[in-house]
Amino acid sequence: MGGIILHPRLSPDGLYFSTYGERVWLKTNETHFIYWEQPYLLNGLSVGDKVYMAADWGPALALNPANDTLYAWEYPGLQFIHVYAKRGTAYFAGMLNRTGGVGILKNGTMTFYRLSNETFKAYDVFPVLDRVYFTVEFKDEPKGGVGLLFPDNGTFYLWRFPGNYSTLVPDGITVDENLTIYTAIMEGKMTGVAMFEPHNATFHFLQIIGRPLHVKLFGDYVLLMNSDWDLVLFNPGNVTWTGEAALKKETGRAEVILLGGPTKTLKVKRGEMDIKPTLERVEKRTYPEGYTTFPGVAFTHDFGGGYVGSGGKLVLLEELRPEVHLVYENGTLRAWVTPREYFQGPVFLYINEKLARWGEEIEWNATFLAGEYNITAVYFDGEDVYMNQTVIISDLKPKLVWKKTLRVENGTIIYGKINVPGAPANISGRTVWADSDGYFSFLVENRSHSPTETPEPKPSTFDWAVLLVVLGVTTGAVGIAFYMKKDKRGLVLLLIGLILIAGHFAVPKPREAVLEEKPLTLSIVVVIPPGFYGANITVLVDGEEVGRTDGKGRLDIPLDWFSSNQAIQRRPLRLQQQRTGT
Fold first, then answer.
1. Which of left, alpha, beta for 148 (phi over 0: left; psi -120 to 50: alpha)?
2. 329 Cβ partners below 8 Å, 6+ apart?
3. pLDDT digits 0-9 by tens, 391-419
4. What whole-number distance in Å separates Cα of residue 279 and Cα of residue 33?
5. What span, in angstroms and rounded, lies between the C-alpha atoms of 152 and 1?
């Protein structure tokens, strides 16, 4: 290519990369290249909604390839070296007026987070969730360290390398799923890789000759790019780390400086050329110390999309490039990535640009009705996008196998079967979905029908038993008064009063006074075409059997089966035939 190839990044457009000169490139296929001339000496590159670049200790840059436009954020004292784009935001490592910090470019506005005065430069960044990890060089020894910035509140942490490694200066950084940091050590009395675990502040060192610049994760492996030696691949668990030490955490609050939008907008020259690749066998050596080298791939800077720059050559290493498989056979759509040893993340499956499935290996019994479908399987390693695409053209149209109707009190139930399970079909002017066996059913209500219920006669609110007690007591009192006066009518009245009081216990009580409250029930009717009623079906609620349906498919479930602490809930009902409802 000419110059030194620095940062390859694979995107849906193709492979972008910068050369340590004044061009950014796009490889669109095996032989065709597009390039854009730049008025800056380029270094870092990352691809998001635009192609973001950092000039070599210069301004932040963003190229819009669609209209050949370059935007520059060129402010006094602002210098960047590397960039990482993620979710519409670009994170830059560098310095402002000889103090290290992180620049965040979002919605066209640059904000700089300046660290404490003892820092000199931030060399590389790696955003994770709500934080940004970075490597840093200090003005005084110990020279090197790593940091963590929380942009939301400006808080940052710094960890300096231990005293016996005080001359080490880091460059590239990466972070694994356990938030363990790996950084390339490019300068100092020793060079190699530093590993740091922030949760326990533990530092480890692995010495490797040369001038390591960048690191990249491949599953359980770490790939180290070395500008003065060979490409190195190793498993951190299989090598011998030295220099274990606990690092002290320094806490500070960054000075947040809102710089603003781009200071320059330039039209850049675009060119094209064809370059045919050559096939070379690369030697691979494994060392007893636990690492592997590729001696034919030397003087490397960074790796992306299966490619690495080796001096002025762009090298594709098939072994370190994931293959995204996408197969559609016999109604089954499958997608997966190999080799799993290096590429352990999920594959994402898109249908007409909409996410349909994702997982380590997708196997989906998919039915495609008449139409054209663009199927894309995507593997994303955090920086590079790997894809495989295919087009499925289908002429499948659901057909009615049979249909029946059943009149009920408030309308008509229409049920039947189509020839494509799980598909929609137009039945009697209505779009209905069939189940996994192709059956469907729905109710068409009578327009004149309005559900009515025969009102139950309201019980009298007057309590005759109470009246009998009142009359009985009154009559008895009068009878006692007459009896005290030697009047025989008193005995008759007393007898009548006792009979009236006794009648209180014979008068029927209101129903709610006699019976305990009747438990509420949920009535379900199981309908399974073509038999219509699902008779003698076992029903389970939350895995516990509650009964079996009768000959009409009906079952009353007491509501005390359901939690009483919520007025409305959705609970799973499961039938013996494994059909489920809510």
1. beta
2. none
3. 999 888 888 999 998 888 778 889 999 98
4. 18
5. 42
Least trusted range by pLDDT, from 131-140, 170-179, 217-226, 521-530: 521-530
pLDDT of 451 over the 60 cut:
no
Taking alpha carbons only, the member of 29, 26, 33, 30 closest to residue 47 is 26
Burial of 417 (0-12, 13-18, 19+ CB in 10 A): buried
**Which candidate, 227, 313, 312, 303, places its Cα nearest to that of 7?**
303
* Confidence tier at 511 by pLDDT (50, 70, 90): very low
Sequence-ordered list of residues with C-beta below 8 angstroms from that of 331, at least 6 positions apart, any chain: 365, 366, 367
In this predicted structure, what is the pLDDT of residue 51? Answer: 96
- Tens digits of residue pLDDT in 283-297: 888 888 788 888 888
CA 487, CA 480: separation in Å to the nearest integer? 10
Q: What is the Cα–Cα distance from 347 to 338, expressed in whole angstroms?
A: 11
Going from the C-alpha of 414 to that of each of 290, 410, 418, 425, 429, the distances in angstroms are 70, 13, 13, 13, 12
Model-level pTM?
0.71
Angle at 550 between CA 548 and CA 555, to 5 degrees: 60
Q: In the 8-state DSSP scheme, what is residue 560? A: G
Cβ neighbours around 125 below 10 Å, total: 28
Pairing outcome for strands 249-253 and 32-37: unpaired
Backbone angles phi, psi at 506, to 5 degrees: -95, -20
Instruction: State residue 112 phi and psi, 5-degree precision.
Output: -110, 130
Query: Are the C-beta atoms of 109 and 258 separated by less than 8 Å?
Result: yes
Per the CB < 8 A criterion, the answer to whether 146 and 196 are in contact is yes
Cis upstream peptide for 530 (omega within 30°): yes
Say whether 407 sits in a helix, a strand or coil. strand
Which residue from 172, 50, 42, 183 is spatially nearest to 105, judged by alpha carbons? 50
Burial call 171-183: b when 16+ CB within 10 Å, e when fewer: bbbbbeeeebbbb
How many whole angstroms separate alpha carbon 304 and alpha carbon 83?
Answer: 14
Residue pair 474/498 in contact (Cβ under 8 Å)? The answer is: no
